[in-house]
Design brief:
This is ADP-ribosylation factor-like protein 9. The chain has about 260 residues and is α/β, with parallel strands linked by helices. The protein has seven helices and six strands. It folds into two domains: about 80 residues; about 180 residues, P-loop containing nucleotide triphosphate hydrolases (Rossmann fold), CATH 3.40.50.
Amino acid sequence: MERGKARKSLEKGKETEKEKIKDKRKEKEKEKAIKKESEEKIKGKEKEKGKSTGKEEKRKEQGKEAEKKKEQLKEEEEEKNNSVLTKPPTEPQEKNKQIIVLGLDGAGKTSVLYSLASNRVQHSMAPTKGLHAVCINIQDRQMEFLEIGGSEPFRSYWEMYLPKGLLLIFVVDSADHSRLPEAKKHLHQVIGTNPILPLIVFANKQDLEAAYHITDIHDALALSEVGNNRKMFLFGTQVTKNGSEIPSIMQDAKDLIAHLAADVQ
């Protein structure tokens, strides 16, 4: 009897132990399932993050491509508008007379020309190397403006082209005080070859704080000595905000150019 009770108690203990082991196994399996689910979620988030980063990079690449294309179109447009000869100018051929545009390098000749041509302010950063011809419609007439580079190697060609000019536009940087004596010297040298050629002086960059007033420019360039038989006009000009309308003073200058060119022709 006692043995039977002891056996039953032992079997019951074994079953309880088995239950505990079974429960522990279930607990471990549950932990494993939770861990696996957590890992899958993390992987899913990383995958989503990777996709998002990929999209962001793709957007950046597309932005760069668009910017590059925009820059390319801008360069093509500048090339279309600009007919610069990179080699030194040769002897001018006989052709219709042009309006000659001269001035030291950095005076803003090209920007002034572009602005006159489009009636909108257009800045040009690149210096003219050689010749730069622009056709501008003024008062239903097409006129050709010929700009000759203002750096030292090209100044020797100024006098070569001047006899073919209807009139001379001379551009100076009003804020570059140290170079005004140099501008004066070259201006008087070039106009000395033709005592009756009409002269228009653009005292450019008047928007700069250091710019001389046009009366100071008149004195600095000794414009009272250009000759009694010469028509001479002085305008204070500026090309400020890119794309804005040209100032009214530049429009007045355009009208005067057309009037003078018609008188000479």
